[in-house]
Design goal:
By secondary structure, the chain is of the alpha+beta class. The chain has seven helices and 19 strands.
C-alpha cells in the first residue's frame, strides 16, 4: 500500500512538474515574443503583426522540451526543427541554456552558437504594411527595425517626402531601401561629415545600376569602360593599337554587420558575355587583408579584363567572391566605479580601467586594458576595432568618442580613448562591448545583364 502510494505520489509530482515547466516555458516565450516583436506601420498608423513567418511560441516551447526527451530520435528531430526555424529559436534557447537538464543545456548551447553564427551573416529584415504614409516615416521605421542608421535630412537637396504604399514581409534591408527609393523618387546617398560617412536618402531618382545582394552586402556595377588607344613608335615607325576594358564595382554593407577586415580585392569566379565569351581576369587578385573602416561601410574595386568582342552586348553573368572577417553576438562589461583600477571578469574577458584623466573643455581620457584570447589570424590588427568602449552619463547618454588608439599587448589589447563630455552630467559608467563570435567567410555577389559599351574609334 505504501509502495503504491509512493509511486502514485511520484507520478503526480512528475505530472505537476511537467505542467509547471510547460507553463513557465510558454510564459517565457510569450514574453520573448512581445519583447522582440518589431511592429510595422499599419494603415491607420497603429502597430500590427506583419511577420507571417513567426512561429507560434507553443511549438517552439514543445521543441525546447523535446531536447530533453528520453528518445534520442526525438531529441535529434527537435534540434533539427529548432535549427530550421533560424533566428526565431535564439531567444527561447537563451532561456534554457542554463537548464538543470544536461541534455537540454548542451544541445541548447550548441544550437545557439550555430544559429548566432548564421544570423551574423544574414541581412536584417523589414516587416511592415503602410498605405499612404509619409516616406520619411517609412524610412525611419526601416531604420528602427533593422538597427541601421539612415540620415534623412543630409545633403543640399533633402528628402522627397511623399505618401507611399508598401508591403514588406521579412524583406532584406537593402531590397526594402531600393524598392522604397524607386516608389518615392529618392536615391541612396552618402553624406561625409567631420568624423564619418553616413548612409542616407536624398531627393531624385538615380538610374539603377546592375545590382546584387548577399546577406548584409549590396554590390553595384558603377561603370564599364572600353578604351581604344594608338601608339606610334618613331624609332621603328610601328603603330600599335590597344583595347582596354575595365569594370568598377562598389560593395557596401549594413551598419549592423560588423566587418573587421576584408581581402583587398574580390576574385572574379565567373564572367560570361551574352554570346558565350568567357572573360579571364588579367593578373591575380590582391589577396592582402585590409582592415575595415567602421566609419565608412563601402569600398570600390576596379577590375581589368580582356575586352569582349563588339558582338557581345552584355555580360550575362558576373560572379564575385570576397573573403571577409566579421564578429558578432556581443556581450558587455559594465564598470560603474570609475575611480579605481579593479579588474572585471566576464566569460573569457577581463577588463581593467587603468587610468582616467579629465582634460580641459570637458574632455575625458581613459586607458583601458582588455585581456582575452585571440585567434591566430593575420593581420592581428583586424581585432583592434572589434571591441567598443563607451562612456555614459547618469541618464545613459553616450559621451562622444573623439579618438581611440589600440595597441597589442602580450595577453590582450590596450585602448586609449578620448571622449567629449557634452552631456547633462559627468560620466557615470564605462561600457566595454566585445564579440563572442568571430568568423571568416567568402561571400558571393552575382550580377546579371550588365550592358557593354560598343562604340569603336572612327
Amino acid at each position: 500500500m505504501n509502495t503504491k502510494h509512493g509511486k502514485s505520489s511520484k507520478r503526480r509530482g512528475a505530472v505537476i512538474f511537467a505542467i509547471a515547466a510547460g507553463t513557465l516555458g510558454l510564459a517565457l516565450f510569450a514574453h520573448w515574443r512581445i519583447a522582440v516583436a518589431q511592429p510595422p506601420i499599419s494603415q491607420d498608423g497603429a502597430a500590427q503583426d506583419g511577420t507571417q513567418a513567426q512561429q507560434p511560441p507553443e511549438r517552439v516551447a514543445r521543441l525546447i522540451r523535446e531536447l530533453g526527451s528520453e528518445s534520442y530520435n526525438r531529441r535529434q528531430a527537435a534540434g533539427q526543427q529548432l535549427k530550421a526555424l533560424g533566428a526565431a529559436s535564439i531567444m527561447p534557447l537563451e532561456a534554457v541554456k542554463d537548464s538543470a537538464d544536461p541534455e537540454v543545456r548542451i544541445r541548447a548551447t550548441e544550437l545557439l552558437r550555430e544559429l548566432k553564427l548564421a544570423a551574423m551573416w544574414d541581412a536584417t529584415t523589414v516587416s511592415l504594411n503602410a498605405e499612404d504614409r509619409s516616406v520619411a516615416e517609412v524610412f525611419a521605421e526601416i531604420a528602427r527595425q533593422t538597427g541601421n542608421t539612415l540620415a534623412l535630412d543630409g545633403g543640399n537637396s533633402g528628402l522627397n517626402d511623399m505618401p507611399v504604399t508598401v508591403e514588406f514581409s521579412q524583406t532584406p534591408f537593402w531590397q526594402a531601401i531600393d524598392e522604397l527609393c524607386q516608389k518615392s523618387s529618392n536615391h541612396v546617398a552618402y553624406f561625409t561629415g567631420r568624423r564619418e560617412t553616413r548612409l542616407g536618402i536624398s531627393r531624385g531618382l538615380a538610374q539603377q545600376p546592375p545590382i546584387a545582394y548577399s546577406g548584409a552586402l549590396r554590390g553595384q556595377v558603377l561603370s564599364v569602360r572600353r578604351e581604344f588607344s594608338e601608339q606610334l613608335d618613331f624609332t621603328s615607325t610601328d603603330s600599335a593599337q590597344t583595347h582596354g576594358f575595365q569594370l568598377v564595382v562598389q560593395v557596401e554593407w549594413e551598419e549592423q554587420f560588423r566587418m573587421i577586415a576584408h581581402r583587398r580585392t574580390p576574385k572574379i569566379i565567373e564572367a560570361v558575355t551574352d554570346n558565350g565569351e568567357v572573360l579571364e581576369v588579367i593578373g591575380k587578385p590582391d589577396a592582402e587583408w585590409v582592415i575595415a573602416n567602421g566609419l565608412n561601410r563601402r569600398v570600390k574595386f576596379t577590375f581589368e579584363l580582356p575586352p569582349p568582342t563588339l558582338a557581345a552586348r552584355r555580360i550575362a553573368r558576373l560572379r564575385l567572391g570576397w573573403e571577409v572577417a566579421a564578429v558578432g553576438d556581443f556581450g558587455e562589461v559594465r564598470i560603474d566605479n570609475l575611480a579605481n583600477s579593479q579588474a572585471y571578469e566576464q566569460e573569457d574577458v577581463q577588463v581593467t580601467l587603468q587610468s582616467r584623466v579629465i582634460r580641459p573643455y570637458q574632455r575625458q581620457e581613459l586607458q583601458v586594458r582588455v585581456d582575452r584570447s585571440f585567434p591566430d589570424w593575420q593581420p592581428v590588427e583586424m581585432f583592434y576595432n572589434e571591441t567598443d568602449v563607451r562612456l555614459l552619463d547618469a541618464d545613459g547618454k553616450q559621451l562622444r568618442l573623439e579618438q581611440a588608439d589600440w595597441s597589442r599587448q602580450s595577453t590582450g589589447l590596450n585602448v586609449r580613448a578620448r571622449f567629449l563630455g557634452a552631456t547633462a552630467g559627468p560620466p557615470k559608467m564605462l561600457v566595454v562591448r566585445y564579440p563572442r563570435i568571430r568568423d571568416k567567410r567568402e561571400l558571393h555577389l552575382e550580377f546579371s545583364n550588365i550592358p557593354l559599351p560598343r562604340s569603336v574609334p572612327k
